[in-house]
C-alpha cells in the first residue's frame, strides 16, 4: 500500500530526502512531469485539456521528529524537537536515527529514582536522551553526527477494514491524495506541490506558490481528530470516519469562502459526507500560499487523524478515499 510506504519513510523537516525520492519514483511510474526546486519542494505538472485555470494542490512531505544536538561521554545522544511534539509521549519510545536508521530508545531518569515532585511533571527536553547502545562518546559520534534526524520507529498497521495506524499521517495522507489526483486528466491545469518544512513554519509552501503562480489553491492536510473519551462532542475538532473536513478558519488563514462553498456543493452533488474543522488553532501551508505575490485564493481539505504529532496516528481509509473523490470532483468542475 502506497500510504504504508509513505508513512514508514523518514522525512523530518529539512531532511525529507527519503519521502521525496519515494514520491519522485511514483511520479516517474505515472509519467508525470515534475521538478525539484532549490528548497526541495517537488512540483508535479498535469496540463489541462483547456488550460484556462491553474490549480495548485499542496501537501507537505515533512514530519515532526527529533534532531541530535549533543553526545554524552557515556554515548547517550541529546536531542531537540523538530516541530511540535508533546514530550510527555516520548519516554521509552523506539526511534530510528539517521539515514541508516540506527535503532534507539528514548530514555530518562528511572521512575524509582525520581522524587515525588518529579513524578508529577513532564520531563524537560534536557532530561531526555536517546540510547543507541554505543559504549562511549567516540563510538556514538562515529555513527551519529550532530544534526542527524531521528524518527519514531512505527510500523504501518491496518487495524480493521477501514482504520489504519502509522506515523507521519500529518501529512503523508495528503501526499497520497495528491498522487491519486495525478492519475486523471482535467480541463484545468493541475500542479501538485509536495512541500518541505511545513512543520517548522510553512517554509516550503510560499516559494512553491510563487513559482507556480496559480489562480487558486487547495491544501490537503491530515488534521487533529479529538473524538476520544474526555472530550465532549461539541469539542471535537474533527471525527475519524465522518468524511473530509473543510476549514473555515485557523491560526494562519481564513480560506476563500467561494472555494469552501464550491467544495460543499461538490460534496452534496456527489453524495460525499463532509464535516467542518471546528478548531481554529494550528495552521497549514495555506497560511503562506494565500499571501504569495498579489494573493492566492485558497481552501483546505483535511483528513481527520487521531494522535497526530505522536509516535502513532489513526485514520480512516474511507475518509482518504472520500477526500480523493471530493477534490477530483472539484477539479472536474474547474476550468
Termini, distance in Å?
32 Å
* Mean pLDDT over the residues: 94
Biggest sheet architecture: 11 strands, mixed
Query: Any idea of the CATH topology of the largest domain?
Result: Aminopeptidase
Task: Tell me the helix content.
Answer: 25-40%
Strand content: 25-35%
Q: Class by helix and strand content?
A: alpha+beta
Rg, please? Answer: 21 Å
CATH class of the largest domain: Alpha Beta
The CATH superfamily name of the largest domain is Zn peptidases
Overall geometry comes to globular
User: Stretches where pLDDT falls below 50 for ≥5 residues?
Assistant: none
Q: Compute the number of helices.
A: 9
**Reported CATH architecture of the largest domain:** 3-Layer(aba) Sandwich
Number of strands: 17
How many structural units, i.e. domains? 2
Give me the strand/helix succession.
HHEEEEEEEHEHEEEHEHEEHEHEEH
What does the model show?
The chain has helices spanning 2-8, 17-30, 116-119, 137-143, 169-181, 205-212, 257-269, 286-289, 317-332, and strands at 33-36, 42-46, 54-60, 65-71, 77-82, 94-97, 102-107, 129-131, 149-152, 157-158, 163-166, 189-195, 216-224, 245-247, 275-277, 298-306, 313-316. The protein is of the alpha+beta class and 335 residues long. Helix 5 packs across helix 9. The strands form two sheets. Strands 1, 2, 3, 10, 11, 12, 13, 14, 15, 16 and 17 form an eleven-stranded mixed beta sheet that branches. It has two domains: 2-63 and 167-332, 3-Layer(aba) Sandwich (Aminopeptidase), CATH 3.40.630; 65-152, Beta Barrel (Elongation Factor Tu (Ef-tu), domain 3). It is globular and about 65 Å long. The longest helix has 16 residues, at 317-332.
